[in-house]
Amino acid sequence: MKKFGGLTAVSDVSMQINSDELIALIGPNGAGKTTLFNMLTGVISPSSGTITFDQEGKKISLNHKKAYQIAELGLARTFQNIRLFKDMTVLDNVLVAMTNQYKEGFLQAVLRFPKFYQTEDVIVKKARNLLAIFDLDKDMHKRACNLPYGLQRRLEIVRGLAMSPKILFLDEPAAGMNPEETAALAKLIRKIQKQFHITVVLIEHDMSLVMNLVERIYVLDQGTLLAEGTPKEIKQNKTVIKAYLGEEG
Ligand SMILES: Nc1ncnc2c1ncn2[C@@H]1O[C@H](COP(=O)(O)OP(=O)(O)OP(=O)(O)O)[C@@H](O)[C@H]1O
């Protein structure tokens, strides 16, 4: 549960995220989707309830962990509003996201050990490979702010992936994209989920994207869980249709 003063933003939500899954979190504006993401990724703490991460059989409580500690456990995310380093190059944006995994590199870098150069090569190669998947390698020396909006959103996902996550949370990845860009993004999300064997959880208002892409859907409404099921089950769920999907469903 999460309360903001007198307002209960999320209440009584039970959610299980399995490995190698593609899940969507849907619901009308103000349903509590981003608040739930924020709790899962340590941006805010829950007022009550438990969040547990299973790390190879070891149960780890995420309740009081800081966002960076949760990121280190392998939970990466993007935000609804783009949060790139706008004046840095596309490549540098990805490299910064990767530094967590190469902490020992700092001392190596200061002392200019040969291993530093080897590590640097490995990191840059990995960053370029990730950018290539998203067709951003040709833009890697451009400043992030000079990319068109749709590509900036893609770069955000690459930054999340650069952290080698086990779970990648995407907050409205297709927001502001046209139908072609959205369709291309859906393909990419499916591709990276399979290729990197990660779990992807996305918040999305674009129902065509959600219904064609994910395996399971959680529906939130006014902070509570309205339904959970496959896209087919959710499309036919009368409560969901009444409360949310309506004509769109
Ligand atoms: N930091 C905050 N302080 C006070 N109230 C908040 C805060 N963050 C969210 N809320 C409130 O909590 C409720 C849930 O908001 P939330 O942003 O999680 O919904 P959402 O489902 O992500 O909506 P949207 O689809 O519009 O992004 C809303 O009533 C919102 O106004």
Structural category is alpha/beta
Radius of gyration: 19 Å
Question: Looking across the biggest beta sheet, what order are the strands in?
Answer: 6-7-8-3-9-10
Query: If helices are DSSP runs of H or I spanning 4 or more residues, what is the number of helices?
Result: 10
Distance between the termini: 29 Å
Average pLDDT, rounded to a whole number, is: 90
Portion of residues in beta strands equals 15-25%
> In CATH's first tier, which class of the domain at 2-74 and 165-248 applies?
Alpha Beta
What fold name goes in the CATH topology slot of the domain at 2-74 and 165-248?
A: Rossmann fold
CATH architecture of the domain at 2-74 and 165-248: 3-Layer(aba) Sandwich
Give the fraction of residues assigned to helices.
40-55%
Keywords: ATP-binding, Nucleotide-binding, Transport
Pfam families: ABC_tran, BCA_ABC_TP_C
InterPro entries: AAA+_ATPase, ABC_AA/LPS_Transport, ABC_transporter-like_ATP-bd, BCA_ABC_TP_C, P-loop_NTPase
Protein name: ABC transporter, ATP-binding protein
Question: What characteristics describe this protein?
Answer:
249 residues, alpha/beta, Rossmann fold, six-stranded mixed sheet, two-stranded antiparallel sheet, 41% helix, 18% strand, binds adenosine-5'-triphosphate, ATP binding, L-phenylalanine transmembrane transporter activity, nucleotide-binding
How would you briefly describe this protein structure?
The chain is of the alpha/beta class and 249 residues long. 41% of the residues lie in helices and 18% in strands.
